[in-house]
Design brief:
alpha/beta, DNA polymerase, domain 1, 13 helices, binds S-adenosylmethionine
Length: about 300
């Protein structure tokens, strides 16, 4: 067993509350990771609640399976993309669930363990895939995309204002082989640091990771899938870690819960929109100051919750 500590799940009590976990309930943990949230759901739904855990990453699934072994048939894990959650759940005989949790992004072990190439703190080949069998790697994006495409990715998915300079520097330095090489190229193209606490390569790494794993497209499909899988009154809880993810979740929940989706210039509603969700909280839920102190990674987390009408 490696020395990296298990991923510390974020906002566990808030997530249980959001999902309204109860004995006998059936839950989909769409981002199983190392099973921290699933463990809490299984305990809170004792003795009869069940969890199906999905994850793209076999190493995380294996860690979760080991951790949750004692729950026997109450816990099942499956390999797959939450963008395909409907087909995956149906293939396992689950047509409806009482709650779906999506805890987006990557776990602290994925960033800390060797092999993923997600961090510029470890010198590793450029990979960044959650699914080791996926075709696109960070190396493909960094070394094969045109300068224009690369700049677009860095701008759109990293919200990096110096995307063009960074893309030009990367393309001019090809081949780029490792995470640390990429990080120093980005730092040198970004110019002097602008007083922030984050490394100058943070945004570019985020952008390439989102591109490699098609994260925003999968998120949109996952949210749509959740509508098909949830029972009436079933809960959807989504934890996001950056503004791009949160925007997708927020707009989806706003639209699905709106009584009218006519453009603002239309004076009288003509859309006939039927809401499918109701927001449980109007405001986003954030971790407590104490949790942030104990788990720094939680500081950017935002939880949004809705239930199926
Ligand atoms: C923040 S971690 C989840 C941690 C988990 N809640 C826990 O308590 O251990 C996010 C997980 O989502 C997985 N993931 C990312 N994109 C995915 C996708 N499209 N489909 C399925 N799993 C995905 C990652 O591999 C990672 O294990």
């Amino acid at each position: 067993m490696d020395q990296e500590p298990l991923h510390q799940p974020v906002m566990v009590a808030e997530s249980l509350d959001a999902l309204s976990v109860r004995p006998g309930g059936v839950y989909l943990d769409a981002t199983l990771g190392e099973g921290g949230h699933s463990l809490a759901i299984l305990e809170a739904s004792n003795p009869t609640g069940r969890v199906l855990g999905l994850d793209l990453d076999p190493r995380s699934r294996d860690a979760a399976a080991l951790r949750l072994e004692s729950f026997g048939q109450r816990f099942v894990s499956a390999a797959g993309n939450y963008g395909d959650m409907v087909a995956l759940a149906h293939s396992l005989g689950l047509n409806q669930v009482d709650g779906i949790l999506m805890d987006l992004g990557f776990s602290s072990r994925q960033i800390g363990l060797p092999g993923y190439g997600l961090s510029f703190l470890n010198d590793e080949p450029l990979d960044m895939r959650y699914d080791p069998e996926a075709l696109l790697t960070a190396s493909d994006v960094v070394n094969n995309y045109s300068e224009q495409e690369l700049a677009r990715v860095i701008y759109e998915f990293g919200e990096e204002t110096r995307s063009r300079q960074i893309a030009r520097r990367i393309v001019g330095s090809r081949p780029v082989r490792s995470t640390t090489q990429l990080a120093s190229l980005v730092a040198s193209a970004s110019g002097p640091r602008r007083g922030g606490r984050t490394h100058p390569a943070t945004r570019t790494f985020q952008a390439i990771r989102i591109e490699v794993n098609d994260e925003l497209v999968n998120l949109a499909s996952g949210l749509e899938g959740a509508l098909q899988l949830l029972n009436p009154s079933g809960r959807l809880a989504v934890i996001s870690y950056h503004s791009l993810e949160d925007r997708v979740v927020k707009l989806f929940m706003q639209r699905q819960s709106a009584l009218c989706i006519c453009p603002p210039e239309v004076p009288i509603c003509v859309c006939g929109h039927q809401p499918t969700l109701k927001l449980v909280h109007r405001r986003v839920i954030k971790p407590s100051a104490r949790e942030i102190q104990e788990n720094l990674r939680s500081r950017s987390a935002k939880l949004r919750v809705a239930y199926q009408l």
